[in-house]
Amino acid sequence: MKRNRSSSISSIATPRWLWLICLTLLGACNDDPTTGRTRVQGQVVQQQSRQPVGAGSVQVYLASRGGGYRPVGDPYPCDAQGQFAFDFEAEQENGYLLTAEAPPGYITDWAVAPQLTAGRQNKDVTVPVLAPAWVRLVLVDEPPKSRVTMTITGYSGSGETLRYPKDTILVRPILAGLTPSIAWFINDQGQDKQSYQEIQTTALDTVTVRIPF
Length: 213
Hints:
Elements: H1 2-30, E1 36-46, E2 57-63, E3 69-77, E4 83-90, E5 96-102, E6 106-107, E7 121-129, E8 132-140, E9 149-153, E10 160-163, E11 168-175, E12 181-188, E13 191-198, E14 206-212
Parallel strand pairs: 1-7, 8-14
Antiparallel strand pairs: 1-4, 2-3, 2-5, 5-6, 8-11, 9-10, 9-12, 12-13
């Protein structure tokens, strides 16, 4: 009698385990990338504070075979709380990511842009953006006056070169917390001089750097 009961329990338990395994495999399949209609829903937040950033837009990109990324369609708008929801048609199974931008200069760092699962529903996607800041460059031509060539680096791109600058003020955008210093190189009649100033910036703030020459 004990053997029959054990056999009966085993026969009942086996289909249950098979059902759980099938359910697990089914859930895994739902996360597998495919092509076709792809749903994306989420929110844009400031990377440093994780607070919502509204009135911007998000853009889907696809990895190109030759390197880099190309945009897929047009940007999709976000509401005042940075929330968005849209659909797009995925032509490939892999290589999709999402970036965002918002005024007055919030942008997504490509290194942390979230990836999308093609052909599936992508819910609660968080798109981080870096907050902008600005550097105020005060160029001072100190006596004796001289004609120099100056290269300034530390902000967007590779910086800029100025030939024979005069007393002036330049305002340039930077990313808050990611610009540790501003450097400048001065060539005065063949003599090179290099200087720099360390800076600390917070979101939507402006710092001043004085550059005498």
